[in-house]
Design brief:
The protein is of the alpha+beta class and about 130 residues long. It has one domain. Bound molecules: zinc ion (ZN) (2 copies). One zinc ion binds next to loops.
Length: about 130
């Protein structure tokens, strides 16, 4: 599943942008939604992880009307082999985090893998024939 293309532009309130800029790299004045494409409800991007306890993380949720900051429990989802945890919040819409791929990042990785195959063994496994 591709990642949602929801973008939060810097038309968000200034204090939100300040928060985002400190905690995450705010590139080109926007933050990208981390959920899977065509999800229900608000877009979401994690601001910071409250990793002191079992708790969760602080998320920015937004829609056409505005942005709100909210603390959400972590999604308990893990892959069957327990190699990957979801990374999203509990009861999130759409697919778990490990099922969501950023098509841009994916395209860049494939291009790099073509030039530096030894650095990206995971992209060469299905090139057997
Ligand atoms: Zn979204
Ligand atoms: Zn999940």
């Amino acid at each position: 599943m591709d990642q949602c293309t929801g973008i939060m532009l810097t038309t968000a309130p200034a204090h939100i942008i300040t928060l985002l800029a400190v905690v995450r790299e705010l590139r080109a004045g926007h933050a990208l939604c981390e959920l899977g494409e065509k999800h229900d409800g608000d877009h979401a991007t994690m601001l910071w992880d409250e990793d002191a306890g079992p708790g969760g993380a602080v998320w920015a949720r937004w829609d056409d009307r505005g942005v709100r900051i909210t603390s959400l429990d972590r999604c308990p989802g893990v892959t069957a082999d327990e190699e990957n945890a979801c990374g999203l919040f509990a009861d999130h819409p759409a697919a778990h985090g490990w099922e969501v791929t950023d098509p841009t990042k994916e395209a860049i990785s494939r291009e790099l893998a073509r030039n530096h195959p030894h650095l990206f063994p995971e992209y060469n496994e299905d090139d057997g024939g």
